[in-house]
Amino acid sequence: MTPLIIDTDPGVDDAFALALACAAPEVDLIGVTTVFGNVGLALTTRNALRVLALYGRDDVPVAAGAEQPLVHPHPHRARHVHGADGLSGQAETLPERATGVAGVDAVSLLVSLLESAPAPVTIVPIGPLTNIALLLAAHPGVRSKIARLVVMGGALGGGNVTAAAEFNIWSDPEAARRVLVEEPVPVTLVPMDLTTRCAVDGPWLDSLAAAGPRGATLVSLTATYREHYSRSLGRDGMVVHDAVAVAEAIKPGLLHTTAMPVEVDCGYGPGRGNVIADQRATRNPGEGREVDVALSADLDQVRSFLLSHLAG
Predict the structure, then answer these.
(1) What is the spatial distance between Cα 32 and Cα 49, in angstroms, rounded to a whole number?
(2) How far apart are CA 151 and CA 243, in angstroms?
(3) Which residues form the Inosine/uridine-preferring nucleoside hydrolase domain (predicted)?
(4) SS3 state at 90
(5) Three-class DSSP category at 266
(6) CA atoms within 13 A on the CB side of 46
(7) Least confident residue range of 262-266, 282-286, 305-309
(8) Nearest residue to 116 (alpha-carbon basis) of 31, 183, 59
(9) Minimal CA–CA distance to 91: which of 231, 225, 267?
(10) What is the distance between the alpha carbons of residues 32 and 63, in angstroms, rounded to a whole number?
């Protein structure tokens, strides 16, 4: 069973990702850390605790992390996508967890979990990469305890928060560059180019809601998010970006990846936060550190995997 840690900023799709990790028998969810992002840190932490409570996971330690980026202020949250509370105004309908946050910060919890784990741990960062950048900068000795990072972030063909950038990377480009470009840790990058193609539709959501109380509760959190994406997609449905990354962590190889160097634009112009992937077939061997970028998948298989686990 793969030990798993999720670093997250819930967020509707983050809630689906956490639920997937709780529901998957293939992995052992050993910790959750929170970061600013879709909403502020207090709300992302509260939302993570409540989603875990929905799945009866009072045992999973939760620690709050960075409340702002490494260098520059965060320009804005994503309340217009996820709702003011991050969960379409429905966060208070979730149960409260008996166990609150751990008495340590996110980086301290990550170090403790990694050092005590009997096997290398998969970490799935599905928000801004601030916590992970701080971890790797301050505690390089834990690199060997990380099996891989499965990062949801980036956009190779146009962003969602600007024309160039995807929200998670744009929220802290300096942290993203540290993790994706500078650190010698195995990375699988799951960009929004692919996650958008894995969008689920109304019947998929209806099937999840009909599967049982937990599925119905998850779907009840989606109204604001679903309305936003229905306009964006031009049909009833939504994109579960972060859950696709967790699915790859649960079932390695579910997504088809290609190794390539990437760069992150940390400038102050319109390209800030852009992930630039070097897809040239003629680049010199060893030219830049490579990460595995998920470019394709059997889309129906991904949707089926998500539904079967969340409904089960």
Answers:
(1) 9
(2) 11
(3) 4-302
(4) coil
(5) coil
(6) 14
(7) 282-286
(8) 31
(9) 225
(10) 7
**Interatomic CA distance for residues 311 and 18, integer angstroms:** 14
pLDDT digit string (tens) for 93-135? 999 999 999 999 999 999 999 999 999 999 999 999 999 999 9
Work out whether the CA dihedral 227, 231, 235, 238 comes out positive or negative.
negative
CB 248 within 8 A of CB 294: yes
pTM: 0.97
Q: Mean of the pLDDT values across residues 205-227? A: 97
Q: Which has the closest alpha carbon to 102: 5, 217, 17, 188? A: 5
Radius of gyration of the chain (CA): 18
As given in the structure block, the two tokens for residue 72 are 């520059």
Phi and psi at residue 255, in whole multiples of 5°? -100, 145
Does residue 30 contact residue 121 with C-beta atoms inside 8 Å? yes
Residue 173: how many CB atoms within 10 A of its CB? 25
User: Can you read off the two tokens belonging to residue 309?
Assistant: 């686990």
**293 close to 191: Cβ distance less than 8 angstroms:** yes
The residue behind tokens 């998010």 is 225
Instruction: Identify which of 190, 302, 247 has the alpha carbon closest to the alpha carbon of residue 20.
Output: 247
- Domains in the chain, start-ordered, CATH in brackets? 2-311 (3.90.245.10)
Write down the residue that tokens 């609150």 correspond to.
100
